[in-house]
Protein backbone atom coordinates (compact mmCIF):
# COMPACT_ATOMS: atom_id res chain seq x y z
CA UNK A 1 0.00 0.00 0.00
CA UNK A 2 2.79 2.41 0.95
CA UNK A 3 4.65 1.81 -2.29
CA UNK A 4 1.50 2.55 -4.27
CA UNK A 5 0.91 5.84 -2.45
CA UNK A 6 4.55 6.89 -2.67
CA UNK A 7 4.46 6.31 -6.43
CA UNK A 8 1.30 8.35 -6.67
CA UNK A 9 2.86 11.35 -4.90
CA UNK A 10 5.99 11.16 -6.99
CA UNK A 11 4.00 10.83 -10.22
CA UNK A 12 1.74 13.76 -9.44
CA UNK A 13 4.58 16.10 -8.52
CA UNK A 14 6.63 15.11 -11.57
CA UNK A 15 3.68 15.39 -13.96
CA UNK A 16 2.62 18.80 -12.62
CA UNK A 17 6.17 20.09 -12.88
CA UNK A 18 6.65 18.73 -16.40
CA UNK A 19 3.33 20.17 -17.57
CA UNK A 20 4.23 23.59 -16.18
CA UNK A 21 7.71 23.43 -17.68
CA UNK A 22 6.36 22.35 -21.05
CA UNK A 23 3.80 25.16 -21.10
CA UNK A 24 6.43 27.74 -20.19
CA UNK A 25 8.89 26.46 -22.79
CA UNK A 26 6.12 26.27 -25.39
CA UNK A 27 5.14 29.89 -24.69
CA UNK A 28 8.77 30.97 -24.96
CA UNK A 29 9.16 28.95 -28.15
CA UNK A 30 6.06 30.50 -29.74
CA UNK A 31 7.28 33.98 -28.82
CA UNK A 32 10.75 33.24 -30.22
CA UNK A 33 9.21 31.85 -33.41
CA UNK A 34 7.10 34.94 -34.01
CA UNK A 35 10.10 37.12 -33.29
CA UNK A 36 12.19 35.04 -35.70
CA UNK A 37 9.54 35.40 -38.42
CA UNK A 38 9.44 39.16 -37.92
CA UNK A 39 13.23 39.35 -37.98
CA UNK A 40 13.54 37.25 -41.14
CA UNK A 41 10.87 39.28 -42.92
CA UNK A 42 12.62 42.49 -41.96
CA UNK A 43 15.87 41.04 -43.30
CA UNK A 44 14.17 40.30 -46.63
CA UNK A 45 12.82 43.84 -46.90
CA UNK A 46 16.25 45.23 -46.09
CA UNK A 47 17.82 42.86 -48.62
CA UNK A 48 15.54 44.17 -51.36
CA UNK A 49 16.39 47.81 -50.52
CA UNK A 50 20.13 47.25 -50.23
CA UNK A 51 20.33 45.14 -53.39
CA UNK A 52 18.38 47.70 -55.41
CA UNK A 53 20.61 50.56 -54.26
CA UNK A 54 23.80 48.59 -54.90
CA UNK A 55 22.69 47.50 -58.35
CA UNK A 56 21.68 51.05 -59.23
CA UNK A 57 25.26 52.14 -58.57
CA UNK A 58 26.84 49.25 -60.47
CA UNK A 59 24.57 49.69 -63.49
CA UNK A 60 25.25 53.37 -64.17
CA UNK A 61 27.94 52.75 -66.79
CA UNK A 62 26.34 49.67 -68.45
CA UNK A 63 22.96 51.42 -68.75
CA UNK A 64 24.57 54.62 -70.04
CA UNK A 65 26.48 52.59 -72.63
CA UNK A 66 23.40 50.43 -73.39
CA UNK A 67 25.62 47.41 -72.73
CA UNK A 68 23.09 44.61 -72.25
CA UNK A 69 25.79 41.98 -71.67
CA UNK A 70 27.22 43.85 -68.68
CA UNK A 71 23.71 44.54 -67.40
CA UNK A 72 22.95 40.82 -67.57
CA UNK A 73 26.25 39.95 -65.84
CA UNK A 74 25.56 42.42 -63.03
CA UNK A 75 22.09 40.95 -62.50
CA UNK A 76 23.41 37.37 -62.48
CA UNK A 77 26.04 38.33 -59.90
CA UNK A 78 23.30 39.65 -57.58
CA UNK A 79 21.16 36.56 -58.18
CA UNK A 80 23.78 34.51 -56.34
CA UNK A 81 21.75 35.56 -53.31
CA UNK A 82 19.23 32.73 -53.19
CA UNK A 83 16.49 34.84 -51.61
CA UNK A 84 16.25 37.01 -54.75
CA UNK A 85 13.32 36.03 -56.90
CA UNK A 86 14.10 38.35 -59.80
CA UNK A 87 15.73 41.58 -60.97
CA UNK A 88 14.49 43.86 -63.75
CA UNK A 89 16.35 46.84 -65.24
CA UNK A 90 14.29 49.50 -67.06
CA UNK A 91 15.25 52.39 -69.29
CA UNK A 92 14.84 56.04 -68.28
CA UNK A 93 11.13 55.99 -69.14
CA UNK A 94 10.50 52.90 -67.04
CA UNK A 95 8.73 51.14 -69.89
CA UNK A 96 11.36 49.17 -71.80
CA UNK A 97 13.19 46.30 -70.13
CA UNK A 98 16.96 46.47 -70.64
CA UNK A 99 17.69 43.27 -68.75
CA UNK A 100 15.85 40.87 -66.46
CA UNK A 101 16.41 37.60 -64.64
CA UNK A 102 14.12 35.47 -62.49
CA UNK A 103 13.92 32.06 -60.83
CA UNK A 104 12.34 29.02 -62.42
CA UNK A 105 10.52 26.25 -60.56
CA UNK A 106 13.83 24.60 -59.70
CA UNK A 107 15.12 27.93 -58.40
CA UNK A 108 17.59 28.28 -61.22
CA UNK A 109 18.29 31.69 -62.82
CA UNK A 110 16.69 32.20 -66.21
CA UNK A 111 15.90 35.11 -68.50
CA UNK A 112 12.72 37.04 -67.85
CA UNK A 113 10.29 39.28 -69.66
CA UNK A 114 10.16 41.52 -66.60
CA UNK A 115 6.73 40.36 -65.39
CA UNK A 116 7.64 38.93 -62.00
CA UNK A 117 4.85 38.08 -59.58
CA UNK A 118 4.36 36.42 -56.20
CA UNK A 119 7.28 38.15 -54.51
CA UNK A 120 7.31 38.82 -50.77
CA UNK A 121 9.12 42.17 -50.97
CA UNK A 122 10.06 44.56 -53.73
CA UNK A 123 12.36 47.57 -53.92
CA UNK A 124 13.05 50.01 -56.73
CA UNK A 125 15.99 52.37 -57.16
CA UNK A 126 16.78 54.95 -59.80
CA UNK A 127 19.90 54.63 -61.90
CA UNK A 128 21.30 58.14 -62.00
CA UNK A 129 24.27 60.00 -63.37
CA UNK A 130 25.28 63.28 -61.80
CA UNK A 131 22.50 65.24 -63.48
CA UNK A 132 19.80 62.88 -64.73
CA UNK A 133 17.96 59.58 -64.32
CA UNK A 134 18.95 57.09 -66.98
CA UNK A 135 17.01 54.07 -65.79
CA UNK A 136 15.74 52.12 -62.81
CA UNK A 137 16.14 48.71 -61.25
CA UNK A 138 13.48 46.65 -59.51
CA UNK A 139 14.46 43.87 -57.10
CA UNK A 140 12.04 41.13 -56.06
CA UNK A 141 12.64 39.00 -52.97
CA UNK A 142 11.06 35.64 -52.07
CA UNK A 143 10.17 34.33 -48.62
CA UNK A 144 10.65 30.75 -49.82
CA UNK A 145 13.43 30.00 -47.33
CA UNK A 146 11.73 31.52 -44.28
CA UNK A 147 9.68 28.34 -43.83
CA UNK A 148 12.88 26.26 -43.69
CA UNK A 149 14.37 28.61 -41.10
CA UNK A 150 11.19 28.47 -39.03
CA UNK A 151 11.03 24.68 -39.34
CA UNK A 152 14.61 24.38 -38.07
CA UNK A 153 13.80 26.74 -35.18
CA UNK A 154 10.71 24.69 -34.22
CA UNK A 155 12.69 21.43 -34.32
CA UNK A 156 15.38 22.97 -32.12
CA UNK A 157 12.70 24.20 -29.71
CA UNK A 158 11.16 20.73 -29.47
CA UNK A 159 14.57 19.18 -28.85
CA UNK A 160 15.28 21.76 -26.15
CA UNK A 161 11.92 21.11 -24.47
CA UNK A 162 12.44 17.34 -24.48
CA UNK A 163 15.98 17.69 -23.14
CA UNK A 164 14.94 20.09 -20.35
CA UNK A 165 11.98 17.91 -19.37
CA UNK A 166 14.14 14.79 -19.32
CA UNK A 167 16.67 16.52 -17.06
CA UNK A 168 13.91 17.80 -14.76
CA UNK A 169 12.31 14.34 -14.65
CA UNK A 170 15.47 12.56 -13.50
CA UNK A 171 16.38 15.28 -10.99
CA UNK A 172 12.87 15.31 -9.54
CA UNK A 173 12.73 11.53 -9.25
CA UNK A 174 16.02 11.51 -7.33
CA UNK A 175 15.24 14.49 -5.10
CA UNK A 176 11.67 13.46 -4.36
CA UNK A 177 12.83 9.98 -3.43
CA UNK A 178 15.45 11.31 -1.04
CA UNK A 179 13.73 14.30 0.55
CA UNK A 180 10.02 13.45 0.33
CA UNK A 181 9.12 9.84 -0.41
CA UNK A 182 11.66 8.17 1.91
CA UNK A 183 10.78 10.29 5.01
CA UNK A 184 7.04 9.81 4.39
CA UNK A 185 7.45 6.04 4.04
CA UNK A 186 9.48 5.97 7.24
CA UNK A 187 6.80 7.90 9.10
CA UNK A 188 4.14 5.58 7.66
CA UNK A 189 6.04 2.52 8.95
CA UNK A 190 6.47 4.07 12.40
CA UNK A 191 2.79 5.06 12.53
CA UNK A 192 1.90 1.48 11.57
CA UNK A 193 4.03 0.13 14.43
CA UNK A 194 2.33 2.51 16.89
CA UNK A 195 -1.08 1.38 15.63
CA UNK A 196 -0.19 -2.21 16.52
CA UNK A 197 0.52 -1.22 20.12
CA UNK A 198 4.27 -0.56 19.96
CA UNK A 199 3.98 2.78 21.74
CA UNK A 200 7.71 2.97 22.46
CA UNK A 201 8.52 3.23 18.75
CA UNK A 202 11.07 6.02 18.21
CA UNK A 203 10.07 8.67 15.65
CA UNK A 204 13.37 9.14 13.81
CA UNK A 205 12.39 11.59 11.10
CA UNK A 206 13.81 15.04 11.88
CA UNK A 207 13.05 17.92 9.51
CA UNK A 208 12.23 21.63 9.61
CA UNK A 209 9.54 21.45 6.94
CA UNK A 210 6.02 20.02 6.70
CA UNK A 211 7.38 16.50 7.08
CA UNK A 212 8.93 17.58 10.38
CA UNK A 213 5.55 18.97 11.43
CA UNK A 214 3.97 15.62 10.58
CA UNK A 215 6.63 13.81 12.64
CA UNK A 216 6.01 16.15 15.60
CA UNK A 217 2.24 15.53 15.35
CA UNK A 218 2.87 11.80 15.28
CA UNK A 219 5.11 12.13 18.35
CA UNK A 220 2.44 14.09 20.23
CA UNK A 221 -0.16 11.50 19.28
CA UNK A 222 2.18 8.77 20.52
CA UNK A 223 2.63 10.52 23.87
CA UNK A 224 -1.12 11.06 24.16
CA UNK A 225 -1.72 7.38 23.52
CA UNK A 226 0.85 6.41 26.18
CA UNK A 227 -0.86 8.69 28.72
CA UNK A 228 -4.29 7.38 27.73
CA UNK A 229 -3.21 3.74 28.10
CA UNK A 230 -1.66 4.48 31.48
CA UNK A 231 -4.91 6.00 32.68
CA UNK A 232 -6.84 3.01 31.36
CA UNK A 233 -4.51 0.62 33.21
CA UNK A 234 -4.81 2.63 36.40
CA UNK A 235 -8.58 2.64 36.15
CA UNK A 236 -8.61 -1.10 35.55
CA UNK A 237 -6.42 -1.68 38.62
CA UNK A 238 -8.64 0.53 40.74
CA UNK A 239 -11.72 -1.36 39.61
CA UNK A 240 -10.05 -4.68 40.37
CA UNK A 241 -9.09 -3.53 43.86
CA UNK A 242 -12.62 -2.37 44.56
CA UNK A 243 -13.92 -5.75 43.53
UniProtKB/TrEMBL annotation:
Catalytic activity: ATP + protein L-histidine = ADP + protein N-phospho-L-histidine
EC number per UniProt: 2.7.13.3
CC terms in the record's Gene Ontology section: plasma membrane
Primary location recorded for the protein, binned into one broad class: membrane
Pfam families named among the record's database cross-references: HAMP
Presence of the UniProt keyword ATP-binding in the record: yes
Chain ranges passing through the membrane: 12-31, 162-181
Xref: SMART domains: HAMP (SM00304)
Top-rank lineage group of the source organism: Bacteria
Membrane topology summary: Multi-pass membrane protein
InterPro entries (UniProt xref): HAMP_dom (IPR003660), HssS/ArlS-like (IPR050398)
Name the UniProt record assigns to this protein: histidine kinase
